[in-house]
Amino acid sequence: MKVIEKVKNFYKKFPLKKCVIGHSVLGQEIYALTVEKTPFPTIIVQYSIHAREYLTAYLSLKQIIHFIKNGRRGTVHFIPLANPDGVLLALSKNPLYKANGQGVDLNVNFNARWGEGAKNVFVPSIENYVGEHPFSAPETRALRDFTLKIMPNATISYHTKGEEIYWYFSQNEKTAERDYKIAKKLSNKTGYPLVLTPNSAGGYKDWCIQELKIPSFTIEVGRDSLSHPLGAERVGEVFRKNKRVIDTLLESIKCN
Predict the structure, then answer these.
(1) Beta-bridge mates of residue 33
(2) Element containing residue 183 per DSSP (H, E)
(3) Do 160 and 230 form a contact (C-beta atoms < 8 A)?
(4) Is the overall model pTM greater than 0.85, yes or no?
(5) Kind of pairing between the strands at 154-160 and 42-47
(6) Which residues of 75-113 are buried (b: 16+ CB within 10 A; e: fewer)?
(7) Contact call for residues 63 and 43 (beta carbons, < 8 A)
(8) Cβ proximity of 106 and 137 under 8 Å
(9) What is the CB neighbour count within 10 angstroms for residue 256?
(10) Which run of H or of E encompasses 186?
(11) 35 CB-near residues (< 8 Å, 6+ apart)
(12) Residues 221/160, Cβ–Cβ less than 8 Å
């Protein structure tokens, strides 16, 4: 349970703005930690929505510290553990577990072509179960409500693995051109290629693009040759490749 305790302790000691955005199925708190350099632009970066991908929670703490020390522009709301129950299950029972405490895969539970993904299933499972309906899980409702409260200019979702970036979800031509330009900058900083995922739907990125009309990116960290789950021993390598991602995104957002 080391990563869960590490995030909790980090949150307790965090000296800046912070809040609990909601609770998991099993009652665990879901934290948001905010670092403000300037009021504009504002982004949300969320991690560990898939249980076995808890490496990204370790990454979040490094990125928070780095942005506190080195960030120059913008406000970042970090959500280190979007799925604390699932992480607990991945650590204690099944290392390949992806879903929440009720077997809902949170990253297919958003109302963005919900249930249309090629790998979706319709019964509780360790992965790919879409839930009874969009936002049936308290964790996705918490992310939705917090996002609508903040109304960010962009979002990032960190996942493992594959070292690639997803940026597209049926945007119109003008919006796609805007988002592609930003995605290329993120690709240049990380070395990760841009990849299209036409058979995927229902994710946080997808919902942000569809409903908020903002740039939204899923970044898969960790080499594909590695096996799930990726542990804390990989965080240094991952952080080095992603150290400039947040600043690059903030610098890419223009005033309307």
Answers:
(1) 18, 78
(2) helix 173-190
(3) yes
(4) yes
(5) parallel
(6) bbbbbbbbbbbbbbbbbeeeeebbbbbbbbbbbbbbebb
(7) no
(8) yes
(9) 4
(10) helix 173-190
(11) 16, 64, 67, 68, 71, 75, 76, 78
(12) yes
Q: pLDDT tens for residues 117-158?
A: 999 999 999 999 999 999 999 999 999 999 999 999 999 999
Mean pLDDT computed over every residue of the chain: 97
Question: Which DSSP category does 25 fall into?
Answer: T
Residue 115: which residues within 8 A CB-CB, separation 6 or more?
108, 122, 130, 201, 202
Q: What is the mean pLDDT of residues 193-208?
A: 96
CA angle 39/43/46 to nearest 5° reads: 140
Taking CA atoms, 35 is separated from 43, 66, 149, 153, 245, in Å, by 10, 11, 17, 15, 15
| Angle CA 170–174–180, to nearest 5 | 70
Query: Tell me, what's the pLDDT at 256?
Result: 52
Residue 113, CB-side half-sphere exposure with 13 Å CA sphere: 15
